[in-house]
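ok so for the tutorial part 2 we go from a plain amino acid sequence to predicted structure tokens. step 1 is just haveing the sequence, like this:
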Amino acid sequence: MLAFAAGASTATVDLEPYLRRDSYERVKISPDGAYFAITVPMEDRTVLAVVRRNDLQPTAKVAGGVGSEVDDFWWANNERVVVSMAHRYGSRDQPGVIGELHAVNADGSYAKLLASPYGLQESNPLVSHLRYELEGSVFMLDPMPTERNFILVQSVAQTSDPVSQIERLDLYTRRRTHLASGPLPYASFTTDVDGQVRFAHGVGRDNSNKLYYREDDKAKWRLVHDEATAKVRAFARGFTPDGRLAYLQMEHREGPDSLGTWDPETGEYTELLRDEVVEPLHIIHDLDGRTPIGAAYMTDRVRYRFFDEQAPTARLYRMLEKAFEGDALRITSVTADGREALVYVYSDRNNGDYFLFDTVSRSAERVASRRSWFRPSQVPHSRFVGFKARDGLELHGYLTEPKDGAEGPRPMVVLPHGGPFGVQDRWGFDDDAQVLAEAGYAVLRVNYRGSGGYGRAHQLAGAQEWGGAMQDDLADATRWAIDQGIADPRRICIYGASYGGYAALMGVAKDPDLYRCAAGYVGVYDLPMMHRDASRRGRVSRTWALDWMGAREDLEQLSPVNLADRIKVPVFLAAGGADERAPIAHSRQMEKALQKAGVPVETLYYPTEGHGFYTIEHRREFYARLLAFLSRHLGGKPAG
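step 2 — the prediction. this is what the tokens look like for a chain of 640 residues:
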């Protein structure tokens, strides 16, 4: 180990490529092909820009305040873009959609706030308006491509258990016309190819998922699937072009979800697609952007399956697959005439490129790259791995190893994802995995029980297993890597963010001889505190805490903050003082408990940061400190 550490000290990791913001994130072409709408990440927000195609000059922009994100955007017609805004409270936080819609013409004219829970004040932005009550949130339901001036939206009042309303919104005047109401609180809706709302999905007062259906705009809602009786959930994914059959994604009591057709007249469900290991990653639509034609599945790479392999768009995907040599791809938008398609292409070694594909000439032109400074040939692959937990449950994950060609066991970092429930590690370019691999570590990311992507049973198996079977899955994965000759048993650390931070600290408390160190980033370490905070947020959060965490009185013994005396290895903690998801109090209490127990602990706190650091300087310091910490205990490269 001393020889390894001495040799590694002459090399360092250049953090700058990882710290640079993506040049672009998402791109969509206008129906007439004259403009691109592009999301651009800034340090403290993400904005939408419109770029003229013929000279690549920016012509319009939509931007919110600090922490704002573009949730999604749509070309409503040739000239007008509609933007849905969200808010993020840190780089590791999931953006929360706030129900605010903006619109702007491609040439920058007629910019308008269409709807916002904070009201429609468009006077001097330097004037502050105090509001005692929030207005309803408004969300895009259907861009209605055949209607030039209107879109379909759903509005939700800021009240307890509000019923969602379906409305028609004028893109230019903001006038909204009520069309119908949902059959249950917080319902989401699915339209058919003609824009008629046919399905409503949501959670009933019994906390079970329900799916409602109606034949047309004049019919009454009827319950067609209830989790309370079926014990599984069903999700509407669209309709056949004639509207006679619906496509449903159906959960199963064991194994992954299936996709199939459902006949509203007979209630018969016919299974069309089902993978043996994973559920659909996303639905593939025809070039109209509305009609499902298949699904993507992610294991060792992203693969595509279609209801009809001979359908024109299915054959187009097969051609693109071959052209891009197995990289993942997704058509983000298509011109109204169907000739040009914007294709997003990515892999485990490439953050993503956008190509404009001409369906007639069958030629492709690169339009934009998210991170052109990374060369895929110099980035290591992430290998799909599988093994069994101690109770026989099949587990999967991704292993990323350095491109140094060294053989034999090497130092390893176990990297549990956050969430934990319904979230999953994916095949794709992962910054943490890649920077750690460049530092000389094998990196193991595990989709432990509770993770999404492997079916309802796999996710439910993690319920109330904080510090239990979910934690054992990580230990079993670590021992698997040792048995496979991947990891040196004397040089393994565990590092994670959010729930991953909890798992890292719980890992060294529960299995003190397995890991040499632990690092927790914006983690939760006091489960009763987390349970109490969740319960105060309302009925839905309180029910979630009981169902997925368990009774509060049982969580003391599963909290790392109470198990510091079991931890025998050094710990690094990092947190933000403005974190609302995992308040910094968790980290400060963990620090005090470790100090009291005599455990070496290093900390990095920034009072202005949230759930994950935003500013480049703070991110640079975090990764420099993390790599230095790991280097001292495992022997890998520090930051340069």
